[in-house]
Amino acid sequence: MRGFVIMERKKILLVNAVNAGGRIQVPVGLIYLASNLKRHGYECEVFHVVDSRTLDACREKIRCHDYLFVGFSIWMGPSALDLLSLAALAKSRGIPTLAGGKFISSLKTETMNEASIDIAGIGYCEDTIIEVADALRGNRPLGDVKGIIYRAEDGEVITTPRRTDANIHLDRFDYDLSFVKDWNLYLQRDHSGLVLLDPLETQRGCLFQCSFCFHSKDDIYRDERGKKQVCSHSVDYVIEKAKYLKKVTGVNKITFCDDEFWINGKRSLEIMEKLKQIGIELLYMRIRFSSINKEMLRELKRLNVNSVACGLESGSRRIFELMNKGQTLETVEKKLKILQEEGMKVNTSIILGNPTETKAELLESVRYTLGLRKINKSLNIVAFVYAAIPSTVFGDLAVREGFKKPDSIRGWVTASAENHDLLKQWLPWYTEDEKKAMIRRDDYFSSNSTAAELLYGYRKKPLYIKLLTLPLYLYERISFYRLYYWFFSFPIEAKLFMKLFKIHQHFRERQKK
Fold first, then answer.
1. Kind and range of the H or E run holding 194
2. Rounded to two decimals, what is the model's pTM?
């Protein structure tokens, strides 16, 4: 890799991008990497591509600066093409390119099928990126850096040993939020004030092995004994970062991007208590149904947390067991009853079109999930279409059923989005008519959940909602049975509902002002 040694350069650019229509999220991973580079004497910038204007601005940066390297956090979807075009530009100027992130760690060597990528970082890269930077400046051989895949000068693709050192104490890494230059990209407003979704993580990692989730099949995030790792920040570290957010944004509510916040209940409560003291509350909390108990919910309510997000993933018993979630449908029902008794709002999700799922099982899943409304009338339900993910149990199952697995980042651009045509590869019953129904199901799930929340989710309904009770009730019932019987022809009432919903949004906006 001698040709990449550029001893005089210390400036580094780290870039990520958002898929069109996707939520613009704080680039948490890149901030950690940039902070560690800064601590080791490198000059680093984090750049977020969110539209064509910022894409052009990033191109101009790469044209005008001689970087030590440009790093890209690449996610599944069309935004990957924008980042690959930027990587190609950097390569044309003799600048090495590094790709990383959860998706790249899933692809592994397939990443190197992209000519514009020189090095792929696998797994957590805070230590890796420092060693890569040092290697590119000639201070160590690139082949000695653990946790990377790279292309040597002769074109050979080389994989170094994976990192197994657990970053249990995340406080050893800084998380310098001053790398975010425009917080307006990420701030939202609800009736109670400013909201920031997922600007911080208090811990990283997950103890479970859900078959559809990233790395359910490989050992990227496991220790030497094969045990999955959860690495944590201290409570004081989290609060200091929250204080900074409060100071620079005035935010009232946040969420954490932890896979599950409630791994250590005592620690979680301490964080929420201290957040409240500085004027910040959790908007909602991601948690597994199996972790819920009455005492915990009462503590959450005391701290003004009134909403939780719990993934159901499937209401088909066979598919649910195949998902290996480590809980039962009976547990889901039991915990949902407790959530209802304690007056907690619940958001849940299911995945449709899983490998080996029959049409009968898809309907079983939909009907079971809708049936949970008997326990919680305002239950918010989101139904996603399954996307095959590399390095997963379900991804391999999709291949076995006929999925033509792409061999490069570009190949996953359409394979990763909600591409209904791909379902035909692993679902033999999935016809064009089924495709039309699956497309329409999204509008009906979202509007049905909205109608249910307007009808049953308020302790004290606003007057304008009371006046709309009858049409809301009629729509909730019609859309419910549309979903239950999977019948979406002539969706006239959906257009009517959207007009009513716009009226609701108008009143909400007036209330905020």
1. strand 193-200
2. 0.92
Task: Print the SS3 string covering 281-332.
Answer: EECCEECCHHHCCHHHHHHHHHCCCCEEECCCECCCHHHHHHCCCCCCHHHH
Give the span between the Cα atoms of 203 and 231, in whole angstroms: 5
Q: DSSP string spanning 139-189?
A: SS-GGG-SSEEEE-TTS-EEEPPPP-----BGGGS---GGG---GGGTEEE
pLDDT of residue 246 exceeding 90: yes
DSSP letters of 199-249?
Answer: EE-SEE--S---TTSTTSSS-TTB-TTS-B--EE--HHHHHHHHHHHHHHH
- Give the integer Cα–Cα distance in Å for 146 and 159: 9
**Rounded Cα–Cα distance for residues 302 and 169 (Å):** 29
Tell how strand 307-309 and strand 285-286 pair up.
Answer: parallel
At 146-205, the pLDDT tens digits run 999 999 888 899 999 998 765 678 999 999 999 999 999 999 887 668 899 999 999 998
Q: Do 421 and 348 contact (CB within 8 A), yes or no? A: no
CA atoms in the 13 A half-sphere facing the CB of 257: 12
Helix axes 469-484, 359-371, angle to 10 degrees: 150
Task: Identify the band that residue 7 occupies on the pLDDT scale cut at 50, 70 and 90.
Answer: low
Q: What sign does the CA torsion over 328, 293, 283, 183 have?
A: negative
Instruction: Return the amino acid letter for 343.
Output: G
pLDDT tens, 306-326? 999 999 999 999 999 999 999
Residue with tokens 């909600």: 418
CA distance 485 to 254: 38
Which of 87, 142, 85 shows the shortest CA–CA distance to 117? Answer: 87
Q: How far is CA 145 from CA 122, 219, 368, in A?
A: 11, 18, 50
% of the chain surpassing 90 pLDDT:
75
